Known about the structure:
Keywords: Glycosyltransferase, Transferase. By secondary structure, this protein is an alpha/beta fold.
Amino acid sequence: MIVVTLLGGLGNQMFQYAFGRHLAIKNKSRLVVDLSMLLARNPEIDYTFREFELDVFNVSFSNFNDVRNTFGYRLARKLKQVTYLNEDGKPFDPALLQIKGDAHLIGYWQTEKYFAEVSDVLRNDFTFKIPPGPGSQHVIDAIVHSNAVAIHFRRGDYVSLPSASIHGVCSPDYYRQAMAYIEANVVNPHYFIFSDDIPWVKANITFPGQHTFVEGNDGKKSFEDLRLMSLCKHNIIANSSFSWWGAWLNANKRKIVVAPKAWFRDPSVNASDLIPETWIRI
């Protein structure tokens, strides 16, 4: 079996599932998710508590709690037949795709290189279980009838936690340059604006043309923003795994995706494999 320890929010969980799904397919094994670290509630200062969020999709897996004490898994551990892979901030390693037998993955695995071979499977897995609500359907109707560009502003804990010194946020200048690129390459773009801090966006960002603020999809409804971003024709993403997946799930074969060159404020963090080669980096 392939066990994946889930960490972080929805976008991070999608990366972790994707790598595990790929390995499970390669090894003709079952995928198991471990929620123990995700649902831990240790009083850490620099940590945002998360919930299991993959259940909005048509994903397929077993729960680690149901298998960890089975005879087969306990025997494999005792005989040291389980390979433990801890990413620990290391860049993409193609050798990990050759792992055979039982494995337990702990990390973020933020590059499509870990799952590009099963893209079609994942696009099917990452379809939504439930139809859009009335508010989202109204936005979808507008998206379908325009040259829709999703533009995402991630703030929240990127601003409030001490780890902001590592992550940082994308600057207004990045968004100005990104929109200038869109204006030069897309006829009559209509910007659909997504953020966990819409008031900040309204106060600090000027949009060059038609634009719509998408509001109300917070908390347990945040996945609706991911759905809507994926339906736009083009994407300007933040340094966020959430909007990364919104762009990746965009099925437009002619899509333009603009991403920040500096994914982390801390230049020592290696994110060289994170952005697909066909995306524009500014």
